[in-house]
Amino acid sequence: MHSVKRLAAISLAVGVVALAAACGSSSSNNSTSTNTGSTGAGSGTSTALNGAGSTLVAPLMSQWQPDYATNDSVTVTYGAIGSGGGIDAITSRSVDFGASDAPLTADQATACKQCLQVPWALGATVVTYHVSGVPDKLHLTGDVVAKIFLGQITTWNDAAIKQLNPGVNLPGTHITPVYRTDGSGDSYVFTSYLSAVSPDWKSKVGASTAPAFPTGTGTEKNSGVAAAVQSTDGSIGYVAVSYIAADSLDHALVANAAGKYVEPDLKGILAAASAGAGPQPDGSVPIVNPPASAATAYPLSTYTYAIVPTVSPKAKTLAAFLTYAITDGQAFGPDLGFPKLPASIVTYDKGLIAKIHT
Asked: Measured between alpha carbons, how far is 295 from 292 in angstroms, rounded to an integer?
C-alpha cells in the first residue's frame, strides 16, 4: 500500500494536470459541457462529465477520475479552482457539477436554481506553520489562532503561545499569517471554527468563503498557501489535510471543545462526523467545533459537497458517477486523509441522487 505522502503527492500532480486541461478548454466547456457526449437526445447519458471547485477534494478526485474512466468508460474532467469558483461554475451551468467545502448560502441556493448539495467526502482543514527551530505539532487554541489572524499576537514567543507549549524554545520571530484570496471552502471551515470559539473574531470578521482578513499575506488555492508557508519563516496558514503530508508541512494541534489536542486523522474526523447533528433543512451537514462530549473529535473537520442540478441533460451519467463517488470511490479516501462516509450519510446521499432527472 502506498504511503499517505506518496499518494497525496501523486494526487496533487494529477489534479494540476486536470486543472490545466479544464482551464485550457474553458471556452469550449462553457458552450458545450451540458450537451457534448450525449448518447441520445433526452437519454440523460453521456461519455463525459465536467466539474470544478474545491481544492480540498482534488486529491480524491484525481483518484476517482482514472478509476471511473476505466470501469465505466466515462471521462470526468475536474478543475480545482476553489469552492467559490465551483459554485459560480455550476450556477452558470458551465460545468455539470460543482464542488464546495462550504454549503450554499440562501442567496447562492436561489441563484443556483434547484441545485442539490451532496456531501460526498469527509475532510479537514489544518493549521500549518513554519518557524525555524520549532518542532512539529505545536499546541494552539482557537482563541490564540484568532488573535494571531487578528494581528493581536505578533511574535512566536508570545506568552499565550508559550503557556500552551511548556518546554518548547519559541523564538521572537514575527508571525506572518497566510490566507486564501480566492473563494475557499477551507477559508469557510477555518473562519467558521474561529467564529465558534472567538466572539471577537465573529464580530470583526465572521465566517465566509472570502473573509476580509485584517492582517497577513494572501494567496490563491491550497497549493499557494502551502508554498507561502514553506518559504516564509514565522508563517502560519491553513490548508486541506492532504496537503500536510504532500508538502511535508508542520501542523498545529488545535484544542477541541473538550480541551484535547487531537490529530486531524481519520479517527478524529470521523469522531467529529459522529457528533454532528446530521443533515440540516438547508442541506448542509455541519461538523465544525463539535461539543465537548466528543473528546476525540478534530475541531476543523468538514464535509465537502458535490453541487449538482436537479435537472440535467446528463442526469443518468451524473447520478451514476455520484453513486460511485459515495460508494466504491470511498476506498481511495483513507490513504489520502479522507475517512469513508458514515453509512447514514451514504443513505441520505442516495436519496438526493435519486432526485436528479432530465
From this structure: 6
Handedness of CA 65, 339, 336, 294 (dihedral sign): positive
pLDDT at 8: 39
Q: Which three cell numbers stand for residue 38?
A: 450525449
Q: What is the pTM of this model?
A: 0.86
Query: Cell numbers 476506498 correspond to what residue?
Result: 331
List pLDDT tens digits, range 209-264.
Answer: 999 999 999 999 999 999 999 999 999 999 999 899 888 999 999 999 999 999 99
Compute how many other C-beta atoms are within 10 angstroms of the C-beta atom of residue 23. Answer: 12
> Residue type at 161?
I
Domain architecture of the chain: domains with CATH:
4-123+303-353 (3.40.190.10), 125-275 (3.40.190.10)
Q: How far is 154 from 234, CA to CA, in rounded Å?
A: 10
- 96 SS3 class: coil
Q: What radius of gyration, in Å, describes the C-alpha atoms of the chain?
A: 20
- Residue 32's pLDDT is what? 31
- Helix pair 185-197, 83-91: axis angle to 10 deg: 120
Q: Strand ranges (DSSP E) for the chain?
A: 48-53, 75-79, 97-100, 115-130, 139-140, 176-180, 217-219, 235-240, 250-251, 253-254, 301-309
